[in-house]
Design brief:
The chain has about 50 residues and is mostly helical. The chain has helices at about 5-20, 25-45. It has one domain (about 5-45).
Length: about 50
């Protein structure tokens, strides 16, 4: 199991990547958005 700081670091990285100009392709954006959402759910579940 990853530590909270590792998961948060990945989440921040993905959020920054989604905001970058290189992520214009809709399929990539959709996939990364789902992955980002899943990481957010993991953080919520572990810290409720």
């Amino acid at each position: 199991m990853r530590s909270e700081s590792e998961v948060r670091e990945q989440y921040e990285f993905l959020r920054d990547e989604l905001d970058s100009e290189e992520m214009r392709h809709e399929g990539v954006r959709k996939l990364m958005t789902h992955y980002k959402r899943a990481l957010g759910w993991v953080l919520e579940e572990e810290h409720m």
